[in-house]
Amino acid sequence: MSFAIIADLPLGVYRGHVGDGDLDVVVSPARLHAALLCAAAAGPRAVEEDGRLVPCEQDDVALQWLERHPPDGIRLPRRWLNTGAAVAFRDEGLLKKSKAGWAVKKNGKPAAMSVAVDGPFAWVWRQDPPEAVRAALAAMCADVSHLGMAECPARMWTGTGEAVQPSHVWDTEATLFGGSGAGVDVVAPAPGRGTVLAAAHAARVGVTPSVKADAIKTDEQSVRAPVAGEALQMLRYVPCGGPVSAAPWSTVWLAPLDKPVEHDERVAWAVAVHRALISIIGDGAPGVITGAYPRGVSRPANRVAIQFLEVGMPFAYATSAPSTVAVLLPSDAAEMDVQVVGEALARLRVIRRPGGEQRAVVGQIAVTTGEDFWPAPRAGLRRWWITAPAAVADNRPPRGAWSVADTVATSVGLVWRDTFPVTGRSDARYRALAHAVAERGVRVSWASLITSGNPRRFVHKIQPGAVLQPYRALLSLGSLAGERTLVAIGQSRHLGGGLLTPVDLPVEEVAE
Length: 512
What we know:
This protein has helices at residues 29-42, 57-68, 131-143, 193-205, 266-281, 287-290, 335-347, 404-415, 426-439; strands spanning 3-8, 13-14, 17-18, 22-23, 47-49, 52-54, 73-75, 79-82, 87-89, 94-98, 101-105, 108-110, 114-117, 121-125, 155-159, 168-170, 184-189, 232-239, 249-257, 305-310, 323-330, 350-352, 358-360, 366-369, 381-388, 391-392, 443-449, 470-476, 499-506. It is of the alpha+beta class. It folds into 3 domains: 3-85 and 115-211 and 229-239; 243-373, Alpha-Beta Plaits (2-Layer Sandwich), CATH 3.30.70; 377-512, no CATH class. It is globular and about 85 Å long. Helices cover 22% and strands 27% of the residues. The protein is built from 9 helices and 29 strands.
């Protein structure tokens, strides 16, 4: 790759919005194009046309080149989303009339929602643009003052692709329901995008309002300019190194709670959290959280999972809160779905169960990765996993010889089923999965069925006529997952069950 545009954010924070004000998590090619257009039309290279400033001919040609040539690769720095609930009340010149008279109205707006980054963004092309285009893009980059909101200053320049290694490459085969599945979906300009933005700007500022329209209102509101949605395209960029992560769930949101959640009540509380998140998102909630996918679309092995962590567990960003709810996003979830679920969790303040019992979210919500969730074992110890509090068998026992250990192995295989070339159905498929995970080093030290109490407390829904088989097990995940990976197994792994918590034992203590 021989040409790149690099954008460094000196404050290490990116604040931008998309749609109806949702937090933007990636500086997209469309955002890059808009920033360069603004610099070209308002900077020292702009020319006057019919009493207004427009990009000069060289800059216009360069912007059209960007519209016709999406970047072949992008560099995304590591990102941490701050979804704090802080509100800023600023004087925007709005007035409100009351019985006491006129007063300045200060509307509250989110002040903390932002994205912290540990390095620059970059957009990379394999082929050099024409020399005139390259020179124009370099000149426009020097005139860009910020990306996103005005409080996010940016330094931009052009360089060679060899000096910037992209983290993601354009998947030209990706469609809405196809392609590699994993990756980042970003918005890019299409031919004519500059014309659309120029027309929207002219419509916004080109007409002087009438005296009546410009008169003082008794209760004034901020007016947001309409978002021009034409001449845009959605592109998917996939990681250069292959799959997003070996972890089944790569993104984990953590919300501390004010009261503990008992083992036997985890599934019920997870259902309450699930319903609350779907209610906050409203119509159009993605299938990754609802579990409902369009007809003809294959269901992924994993979707959003909700688990509870006790105080004292040594997980990343652990606090002294009595309990913490963890919302897990699968590795193949689209970036937009991750954003939707994260913003819904940021708005979740109280969790309610039927009967009036509730738990409140206290403190800051943190986000971490599923790959580095638990601490590494100390020297001389080997990482094993125990189900907490229990897992539920995904299938009935096949005919013939079959053990509880085989049931555990099948539960593990179903978590990673998309990575195994297993064919067949029913009993043959379950046996093949158990065999496949054994070849990857999965070992079950012991496993036992739970026969006391009501087994329904460990699962939300079951098929009519199905036999519930909750179990506890101590197992090793072999090469399927790292020593710090967050994993849940079993039928109820998406709603409070089957969480694997680490147990470190001397290497010689547990037999293979």
